[in-house]
Amino acid sequence: SPVICWFRQDLRLADNPALLAATQSGAPVICLYVLDDKTPGKWARGGASRWWLHHSLAALSASLEELGARLVLRRGDAFEIVTGLASELGAQRVFWNRCYEPFARERDTSIKTRLKQAGCEAETFNGALLIEPWNLKTKDGGPYRVYSPYFRALAPHCDDIAPLPAPSSVTDGSQGVHSDALSSWSLLPSSPDWATGFGPVWTPGEDGARARLETFCEDAARDYADTRNLPGTDGTSRLSPHLHFGEISPRQIWHHAVSHVPAGKGRETFLKEIGWREFSYNLLFHFDDLPESNYQAKFNGFPWNFDETVFKNWTRGQTGYPIVDAGMRQLWQTGWMHNRVRMIVASFLTKHLLIDWRRGEEWFWDTLVDADLANNAASWQWVAGSGADAAPYFRIFNPVTQGEKFDEAGHYVREWVPELTNLPEKYIHAPWTAPADVLARAGITLGRDYPKPIVDHARARERALAAFSSLKDAA
Ligand code: FAD
C-alpha cells in the first residue's frame, strides 16, 4: 500500500525530511497538498500569500514531475481529507514536516490520533526550524523571552548543520487519485489584478529561492551589517516569502552562509536575523495567543483610538510622511516591504495614529507575500511595545529623521512616491517644510498632488506618551 507525503509549509524537494523519509520507505508515495481555509479561521491565507502559493505549487508540481511523481491537490478541511485519503487508500504511513501555528498544531494532533486509531502511523519531522522550540529552554526550564540569550543558546546547535539531499526519484502512488486543477482554486487575483507588480520582483519556488540565496551570499551578505537598514539599496536577502513557504529551509540558509560568506560582521548579523525568525517561532509556540493578545498584559487597557479614515490613509500610503507612504506603497505593489520601513510604518500606526497593532497585523497578513503568523505577530508586538523583549514604548520613531538617516538621498521615496520625484533632497522627507517656490518648481501642490501630514509629529508624540503613561498610572 502507498504512503502519503503531506506538503504544507515545505514546498521543496531538498532538505525535506518528510519527503526523504517517505521515498525511503520503499512504498509508492502520494504527494499531497491541501488548501484548508477553514482550520486557520481568521488566519486563512491573505490575498498576496495566495498569489505566492499558486506559483509555488506550480513550481513544486513541475519539480515532482521531473522525479516521476504527481502533486495531488485537494481543497477543504485538512483533517477530513488527510484521514479520509489514508483510509480510502489503505495507507500505512503519513509523513509531514511540523507546523507551529496553534491551529495547525491542534489539527495535526487530532489527525495523528485519528490515523493511529485506524492503524496508520503519522511520522513527523522538523523541516522549518533550526531547532524545535521545546528543545531550547532556559536554565530554569522555561521558554526564552529575551532574544540575546536565546540566540547565544541557539547558535552552537547550528554548527554541524548538514542539509539533506533531495530524493533522486519518487515512486508515484497517485494513479487513480483525484487531484483538483490548480487553476480551479482561483488563487490569483483577476479583476482587478492588483498583483501585476509582483511578477517582475519575485520567482516563487525552490529554484527561485536557491538563486536568491546564492546571489545574496555572493553580492550583499558581506556588507549586510551596513546596508540592511537602507531601504533604497538591495542590501537584504528577500528570502522571507521563500522561507515562509518552505521553498528553502533555515538549515540550508545557515549552512550556505557559513560555507560561502567570509566570517565577519555581515555574516554574523545575517545569521542573527535568521535567529530572530527562530525566536518568533519560539514565542508563538510557548505563547500561542501571541497573534491576538498583548504579550504584556498591562497593554490590555491601552486607549487605542481607531479612526477608519486615518487607517485608510495609512493603508494607501497617503499619510503625508514620505517614508511611511513609500513603504505602504511598496507593500501594495510588490507584496513586500523593507524591514526598516516596516518598523517605521508600524510605529507610525500604533504611536502616531494610536491604532491597535492588531489592525496593522491584519493588513500585513493580507498584503505581504511573506505573511507569517509567528514573525508578523512577534514583530508587531515588538514595535507596539507590548511584546516580549520589545522596543521600549517611549522610543517613538520620528518619520522625518528616520527617512533622513536611512534614505538620505531620498532614492527609496522617489521610487515609491513618484509625485515627489522633483523635490530637492533637503525636503524629500518633509515636503511641508519646503518654501512655496520650491514646491511650485517641483510641480507639487500639497493637499492636491501629495497630502499634507495627517498628524503633527510633535503633537502625536505627546499624545502617545500620555496614552502610555495612563497605562502606567492604571497599573
Ligand atoms: P533579511 O534581512 O535578509 O533577513 C533574512 C531572514 O531573517 C528573513 O527572510 C526573515 O526570515 C528573518 N528575519 C529578518 N528580520 C526578522 C525579524 N525582525 N523578525 C523575524 N525574522 C526576521 N517577516 C516575515 O517573514 N513575515 C512577516 O509577516 C513579517 N511581518 C513583520 C511585521 C512588522 C511590523 C515588522 C517590523 C517586521 C516583520 N517581519 C516579518 C520581519 C522582517 O521585516 C522581514 O522578515 C524581513 O524584512 C524580510 O526581508 P528579507 O528576507 O530581505 O530579510
Automatic annotation (TrEMBL):
Q: Which reaction does it catalyse?
A: cyclobutadipyrimidine (in DNA) = 2 pyrimidine residues (in DNA)
Q: Which cofactor does it need?
A: FAD; (6R)-5,10-methylene-5,6,7,8-tetrahydrofolate
Mind listing the UniProt keywords for this protein, alphabetically? Chromophore, FAD, Flavoprotein, Lyase
Query: The organism sits in which domain of life?
Result: Bacteria
Query: Which Gene Ontology BP annotations are present?
Result: photoreactive repair; response to light stimulus
**Name of the top EC class for this enzyme:** lyase
Q: Which GO terms describe its molecular function?
A: deoxyribodipyrimidine photo-lyase activity; DNA binding; FAD binding
Q: Where is this site: Electron transfer via tryptophanyl radical?
A: 304, 357, 380
What's its EC?
4.1.99.3
Co-factor remark? Binds 1 FAD per subunit.
Q: Which InterPro entries match?
A: Crypto/Photolyase_FAD-like_sf, Crypto/Photolyase_N_sf, Cryptochr/Photolyase_FAD-bd, Cryptochrome/DNA_photolyase_1, DNA_photolyase_1_CS_C, DNA_photolyase_N, Rossmann-like_a/b/a_fold
| Chain sites annotated for binding FAD | 224, 236-240, 270, 370-372
Which residue ranges does the record assign to the Photolyase/cryptochrome alpha/beta domain?
Answer: 1-130
* UniProt-listed Gene3D superfamilies: 1.25.40.80, DNA Cyclobutane Dipyrimidine Photolyase, subunit A, domain 3, HUPs
> Its family?
Belongs to the DNA photolyase family.
Q: What is this protein called?
A: Deoxyribodipyrimidine photo-lyase
Question: Where is the organism placed in the taxonomic lineage, from the top?
Answer: Bacteria, Pseudomonadati, Pseudomonadota, Alphaproteobacteria, Maricaulales
